[in-house]
Amino acid sequence: MGIKRIGILTSGGDCAGLNAVIRAVVYRAIGTYDWEVVGICRATQGLMCSPPDVMELTIEQVDRWLTGGGTFLGTTNQGNPFAYPMQDGSVIDRSDEIIENYRSLNLDALIGIGGDGSIAILRKLMQLGNIPFVAIPKTIDNDVDVTERSIGFDTAVNIATEALDRLQFTAASHSRVMILEVMGRDAGHIAISAGIAGGADVILIPEIPYSISKVCDKIRERQAKGKNYSLIIVSEAVRTETGDTISSTNALGQCRYGGIGQYLADRISACSGAETRVTVLGHVQRGGTPSPLDRLLASAFGVAAVDLLAEGKFDRMVAWQQRSVIDVPIMDGIAHYHAVDPVSTLVKTAKGLGIYLGE
Ligand code: F6P
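Above: the input record for the complex with 6-O-phosphono-beta-D-fructofuranose. Below: its predicted structure, written as tokens.
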């Protein structure tokens, strides 16, 4: 089958670098292969409209998007099309409708940019419709297995590191303990990377148990050495000492973490006597200008994904391994959740630097 016209969409939570990958896909598809590229708006939601919510993309249009944050196509991390919550309260399967609307666009293949959850849903849809599909991994959480890096992660680490750099001065000026709560869902990749890079004294991640008394020991140990402040970085899904996560459930039944920073602050100030403050970084980690590394990764993934389609290699996910883009069957790419390995180099590095990481 000769490809002439492809679709592209971004799905799941936004992150820095999404526009850079759309730009790369458009450059390669139009510039090298002379294909047409159609941008599908708001992920599968754009395909729930009839006619579908799309825009024809040109090189001129995407030219300035290398540095822009978010995704100009829009995205959603809500509303699984196989169990879609309708306004009347019913939940229905809208997959047939999406496939039918997709077909009305006369596309020969689709490139989907998403995290593990979005990629799994898109793949299921594409398999049902027998639609050629290639996936590109993005997520600040960096929890997509197989790829060493996903688009957006590096920028999030840069932002969290900068936050620690800034907090350090206020911590020192006021002799305080500063706690920075970062995102990452069930994986502590952002916290451990930014924690090491930003000189944290304590790094708490969901993968490694900890105790408040040991955190306080660390603070006292620093005080005994004349260091009047301490920096703590904590992943949003770290559990309380009794093993609970601090989370809420939104109207769609999705779990959203948040609050472990304040939980720790209350206990640390009680047990160490230190004045303690919390900063919750939140969506600042996802927005804004992508780092150079994320722009590089996005560009490399975009070009490689288009090349896969040109070679007739479908149902593949691009991934970054050992300084190169590789491609793997999508199911292999997302089969396992990629959490922080408690015996990894970064864990050893943090411990080697005397950072308290738990036991
Ligand atoms: O998966 C990316 C992520 O930013 C997580 O780190 C975080 O837990 C979640 O999305 C937040 O989702 P929302 O944008 O719906 O608040």
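Notes for the reader.
The chain has two domains: 5-151+290-321, 156-286+341-352.
The mean pLDDT is 97.
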